[in-house]
Amino acid sequence: MDLYTIIFYIFAVxxxxxxxxxxxxxxxxxxxxxxxxxxxxxAGIYVFLLADFIAITQLLIYVGGILVLILFGVMLTxxxxxxxxxxxxxxxxxxxxxxxxxAGTIIGIFWSTDWNVSSQLKxxxxxxxxxxxxxxxxxxxxxxxxxxVLLVALIGAAMIARRExxxxx
Length: 169
Known about the structure:
Layout: H1 3-24, H2 28-48, H3 52-75, H4 92-112, H5 128-136, H6 140-162
Helix pairs in contact: 1-2, 2-3
């Protein structure tokens, strides 16, 4: 194994380990911080897949925005979050069956697919300049329509949040 493969497996182990901590942790703060490592691991895997734009987007949007929002929400919550473990026993058997079926399907697809493996690493062009050029030429109108729709949604959310509650008689 070369250094490239070893580093890829390190990122894969970090991502899977952190994801398992997120799923199985009973402490929500610990799960939120493990989510940080899972997001960084996924961004690292995107770098290895030569998808630089998606890796940067992963870091900026998920780590920089969503995860920080989750951490603030968790740390500013004034009450304790209690998880009732007795109610989950009824759903354990169906969940195990569904997860086993999905895992078997994914493993079957993995082993039956004829993977094309190159002996040498191809250096590809960066994707970010191409995406930027397409967003400002061919896809300018859909990009602007999406930005206006998001602006209207943001204004609507602000109006709903600022609406005064009417006292009930």
